[in-house]
Amino acid sequence: MDRRPAHPAHGADGPAWRTTVSHRAWLDAELRRLLRFSRDPRHPLGGFAVLDAHGRGRPDEPVHTWITGRMTHVHALAYLCGIPGSGELIDHGVTALHGPLRDQEHGGWFRAIGPDGVLDPVKDAYQHAFVVLGAAAATAAGRPGARALLDESLEVYEARFWDEAAGRVVESFDRTWQRPEAYRGANSNMHAVEASLAAGDVTGDLRWHDRALRIADALINEVARRHAWRLVEHFDTHWVPQLELHRDEPAHPFRPYGTTVGHWLEWGRLLLQIEASLASPPVWLQEAAVALFDAAVEVGWAADGRSGFVYTLDWDDRPVVTSRMHWVVAEAIAAAAVLHERTGEERFEAWYRTFWDHASTAFIDLDEGSWHHELDADLAVASGTWAGKPDLYHAVQATLLPRCALAPALAPQLAATGLRG
Predict the structure, then answer these.
(1) Which domains does the chain have, with CATH numbers?
(2) Pseudo-torsion of CA 196, 201, 204, 209, nearest 10°?
(3) Cα(135)–Cα(112) distance, rounded to whole angstroms?
(4) Is 394 a catalytic residue?
(5) 174-228, pLDDT tens digit by residue?
(6) 256: buried, middle or exposed (CB in 10 Å: 19+, 13-18, 0-12)?
């Protein structure tokens, strides 16, 4: 299959979609359609439920901290876009993060709770990043209790997860913070970047922006650059790459074997957001953002001869897991949008159109709502890694990032200026 974008450069095909009134209206309509997916996403135990394919909460599933943090963030974005009914959903998320998901004895947040209490007491950086993100968005929305939650979550993040010597976050601990896991991961650090940018914007403490840069410098400017922009995901405690981890479990939902193409795109977007957040950003940020995007579309798009991005590649750029994930095309849309915003290069506008076409024809579910979370290589609905449509985080951001400036972060930007006209 031809891996070039399906559209010509926008100069030959009208103005950039992102700047047209009609496309921006379409993005707004898609945002509102997504938010109507679930009539009530709240879990009876508190927090937000994992959603099934029809938008029904699954009370049989645990309450996950990462889902609750992400959906608190989503509903804060909705509130700041003027969507009625969102405020009480933000408050529901903040209450859960203050309450049953929080470890009242040892501090921090559990991974998950169930009807009989704590199901997974591990404290990990990935979950805590979404507590920070949700709390920052709720604070930007001015909701009660949000700033106290943000302050506490940042205190925990700084004291427990931030490794000043490494300039990165450590992965996880047991409930009492006594036993750190013998693993370091790029995924948790990537979400720490997103959370740090939001925290710095909301609190005014620019140390968080500096930490975001340090994480990116270590994992992208150093490690990914050395691997020809193929993102290394897994490390030991000394930050030595572990390239063969989970070879026997290649579709692991959080730590799959090989390199995850969608993260190249997500990092590309974040690098430009870091750049826009700093008074004197290093020049490598834009270079790396472009290089990651170019590598992703060169070896990840239609890597098996069929439309879409494969989930993972091995270290010789061969497809490993050929499933198509909704979050990958959502991040591709965002990456193309911000790269076009930053560079003005028409090829990014062409890819932006191509990715939205792919999302529209393959992932957007006009019958049941939301986006299919996983497809197989033939673009049929699948559930090898993700069953149902658990949350709205990636798809909602794909409708907002093309309409926003690169900085500040989404929630404080919407609070200050609203969407650009």
Answers:
(1) 10-417 (1.50.10.10)
(2) 40
(3) 18
(4) yes
(5) 999 999 999 999 999 999 999 999 999 999 999 999 999 999 999 999 999 999 9
(6) buried
324 forms bridges with which residues in the sheet?
375
Give the active site residue among 43, 64, 191, 394.
394
CB 17 within 8 A of CB 23: yes
Catalytic residue among 128, 263, 340, 358: 263
Calpha distance 101→14 (Å, rounded) = 50
Q: Kindly tell me the sign of the dihedral angle through the C-alpha atoms of 35, 97, 132, 171.
A: negative
* Percent of the chain scoring above 70 in pLDDT: 98
Q: Distance between CA atoms of 15 and 22, rounded to whole angstroms? A: 11
Rounded to an integer, what distance in angstroms lies between the CA atom of residue 406 and that of residue 419?
12
Tokens 């299919």 sit on residue: 372
- Both tokens of residue 118? 């704590």
At residue 164, φ and ψ (nearest 5 deg) are: -65, -40
Q: Single out the residue of 19, 177, 24 nearest to residue 106, CA to CA.
A: 177
Predicted local confidence at residue 135, as pLDDT: 99
3-class SS at 28?
A: helix
In 83-190, the DSSP E strands lie at 112-114, 117-120, 123-124, 162-163, 168-169, 172-173, 184-185
Structure tokens at 214: 């340090």
> C-alpha dihedral over 170, 401, 365, 346, to 10 degrees?
-110
Q: Determine the pLDDT at residue 11.
A: 47
- For the record, the structure tokens of 376 come out as 């197989």
